[in-house]
Amino acid sequence: MTNKPALSRAAWLAAATLGLSLPAVAGDRGYDDDDHYDRHDKNSSYDPAYNVCRGVDPRCYHDWAAAEREGNRVLIYSRTAGPRHANLGPRLAAGLNPALGAGNVVQNALKSWLEQEGIEVDWTEDVTRLSNLHRYKAVIFASTTRDTLQAHGRAIDPALAVNTSTSAHLDAAKTALRQYIRAGGGFVGIHNAFGTEYNWPWYEGLLGNANYYDHGANQDGMVKIVSRNDSSTNGLPKTWPFRDEWYNLEPFPTRVKFLATVDENTLATRRELHPGHGDFHPVTWCQYYDGGRSWVTTLGHDGAAFTDGSGFPGQPQFKQMIVNGIKSAMGLAPFCTSGR
Asked: How confident is the model at residue 17 (pLDDT cuts 50, 70, 90)?
C-alpha cells in the first residue's frame, strides 16, 4: 500500500469549516488493503448518491484517455432543447464549427478568449457530434437547456427505430459525456448549464450535487471571492460588481471547493419562490467527479458580460475567472487546489 501523509488536526478542522470532503488516508478505513476506496466509509470520497468518487481529493482523478487528447483543444456545446438565452443568438446549423453570426455572442467570445491563450476551439449545437470526446481537454456547456443530450425526433422515423447499430440510440451523447468524464475529461458549466438534464442524477452530481431552482431579477450585486488561492480566482479582487440573475439552487452544492459567492445584502430581490441562501450564496465552485474535473459557475446571463469593452460591471473579472477556470479544467493550471 502506498504511504499517504496524515492530515493535521488543523487541516481537518479547516476542511470541515469550509464544507469540503475529507479525503481518506492510509491507516483510515477509507482505503482497503489494495489502496482502493472503501465505499462504506464516511470519510472516503465515494458518494453513494451518485455512485462515483467525487470531492476535492485529486485521487478521484484519472486520465485514462490521455493519449487521445489532441493538443490543447476544447469543445463549446450550446444546444438548447428549451428556452434559449439571447446571448447565444440564433441556433447554429448542424455539424462541427458551423458559421457564427454577430448574434452568437457567447460562442464568439469564448472562442476569441481561448484562442488568445493558444487554445484550439471547436463548437457545435449538433447532438450527434457528441460521440467520442476524448480528443478534447475540456467540454464547455454554455447555457444549454433541458434535455440537450437527447436526439429528439429520430424515433419517429421507422427506419431509425429498427436500426440498433447507431441512430436508434437516442441518448448516445449522454453515454459519450459520461465516458469522457470517467476517462479524465474536463467539464465547464456556464450559467444555464444548471437548467439542463434535470432528470439525470449523474449530471446533477457533475454540477456538484446542485441544480437550478429559481432566480430573482436580473440585477446588480457584489461577487465575493471566497477562495483566492485557486487558479481560476488568483489575482481577482476580493469583491467585484456584477449583474446577473443570481440562481438559487436546490439541492445545494456539497463536497465541492467554493470559489465565489454573491453577497445577498447587495441584491434588491433575492428570489421568486426560493427563500434564498442567506449569508452564503455560491456562484462558482469546482470538484473532481467520477474520474474527471468539473468547474462550474451560475454566472453569465447577459451578453455584455461576454463583450470586451462593454462597460458591463465586472466584465474583465468575469472574463478572467472564466478563462482561468477553463484552463484549470483542461489541466493547464492546477485544478481545485486545497485551502483558501
From this structure: very low
